[in-house]
Specification:
The chain is α+β, with helices and mostly antiparallel strands. It has six helices and seven strands.
Length: about 180
């Protein structure tokens, strides 16, 4: 399983599950209400409190929708297979970058919570080092630079595949090697 922001999971079987975009809608609505509350209302007034209550409800709705989606995807994955191989991501370091849009997307997709759900729903979850899994060709093993905007992996050997699918196949191979060493 290759986890990400736009595609919540890409499976080594070739299946890709898109991430829901509900969080963006809620963020827009929350920002509108916060802007209106802070510019038009006096702090502590009845209108300020009403808008604060509405903002809190929107946060709760956003949280429930994202959690429900993640529970459904993790349940589906746990029913499909006993052992899942995923990336050992350092989410704290990823979210401390200077790109604020990426930080918001990381928080909205709740990757850490999703990995936690996988750990307790599946029988075995192996976490492998994700280093160069997107840059390595699964067909011939060559390494090439892949900028984030490039979503299709095209190798010199003629292998062409979606970037996330290529990474999930590489993670699958790494997981099989670790399982062979354990047995």
């Amino acid at each position: 399983v290759d986890v990400g922001i736009t595609n919540i999971v890409a499976l080594s079987t070739g299946e890709i599950r898109k991430n829901r975009t509900d969080a963006k809608y809620f963020d827009r609505e929350i920002n509108k209400l916060k802007s209106h509350r802070d510019s038009k209302c006096q702090k502590g007034s009845r209108r300020f409190k009403r808008l604060s209550r509405t903002i809190r409800r929107l946060y709760e709705m956003k949280n429930r929708k994202v959690n429900d989606f993640l529970h459904k995807v993790s349940k589906n994955l746990s029913c499909q297979s006993d052992t899942i191989v995923c990336e050992d991501l350092n989410l704290k370091a990823m979210s401390e970058t200077y790109k604020t849009g990426l930080n918001r997307e990381l928080r909205n997709s709740k990757l850490g919570f999703f990995l936690l759900l996988l750990k307790y729903k599946c029988k075995r979850v192996l976490q492998v080092n994700p280093r160069n899994t997107s840059k390595t060709c699964n067909h011939c093993g060559s390494l090439q630079e892949m900028p984030l905007w490039n979503r299709t992996y095209e190798c010199l050997c003629g292998w062409s595949l979606d970037r996330d699918l290529n990474a999930s196949l590489n993670l699958f191979c790494l997981g099989q090697a670790i399982l062979r060493n354990l047995c």
